[in-house]
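Example S7 (structure tokens).
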């Protein structure tokens, strides 16, 4: 069994032996180096999973509740700001206009010699098809660091698309990474998604 998150670290992990991380937990970046950083990341993901997408009246209370649940109540305001930045991303506007929306959905599919599994932060269906959104809460400073982060996380996004396509028998139209920030989130569309998905299949066979 292989976790989709493991493909983001494939250069340092043995193939087909990775253990799934907790949903919403990332392991890279400055915030990932301490307990508070991991807790903040989980709280942001949990808030994005439960907040009303069309109006954010419950955002502050949810951010506070999840901050308390993760043992970091002093970071509630920061968690709210990071969540708000993601909600303001263009891809979230598209999700709000979509026909159907799913959040924090488990997915698993047989690909190659293993079972690929993971949790998709956000998936929606509009006139263009299925779209996968993956939130990132690690800090990324500068263009070079952002380029490296996108390269690192692209296989993970491709893994989510590959699993969905295998289960549903239909293509995923697009994948986007949303890097949450206290100000404006950075949204990155995964380029050449079919080739990224094909690379995932090749890596697991």
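Recovered sequence:
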């Amino acid at each position: 069994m292989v976790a989709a998150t493991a493909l983001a670290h494939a250069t340092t992990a043995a193939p087909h032996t990775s253990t799934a991380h907790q949903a919403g937990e990332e392991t890279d970046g400055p915030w990932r180096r301490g307990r508070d950083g991991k807790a903040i990341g989980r709280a942001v993901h949990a808030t994005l999973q439960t907040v009303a997408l069309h109006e954010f009246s419950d955002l502050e209370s949810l951010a506070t509740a999840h901050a308390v649940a993760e043992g970091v109540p002093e970071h509630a305001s920061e968690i709210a700001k990071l969540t708000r930045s993601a909600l303001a991303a263009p891809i979230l506007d598209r999700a709000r206009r979509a026909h159907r929306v799913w959040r924090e959905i488990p997915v698993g599919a047989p690909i190659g010699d293993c079972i690929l599994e993971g949790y998709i932060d956000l998936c929606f269906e509009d006139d263009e098809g299925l779209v996968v959104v993956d939130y990132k809460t690690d800090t990324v400073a500068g263009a070079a660091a952002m380029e490296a982060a996108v390269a690192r996380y692209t296989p993970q996004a491709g893994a989510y698309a590959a699993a969905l396509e295998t289960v549903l028998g239909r293509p995923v139209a697009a994948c986007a990474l949303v890097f949450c920030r206290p100000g404006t989130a950075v949204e990155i569309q995964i380029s050449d998604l079919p080739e990224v998905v094909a690379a995932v299949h090749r890596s697991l066979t």
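Notes on this example. The helical segments are 35-50, 59-69, 76-87, 90-96, 143-168, 193-203.
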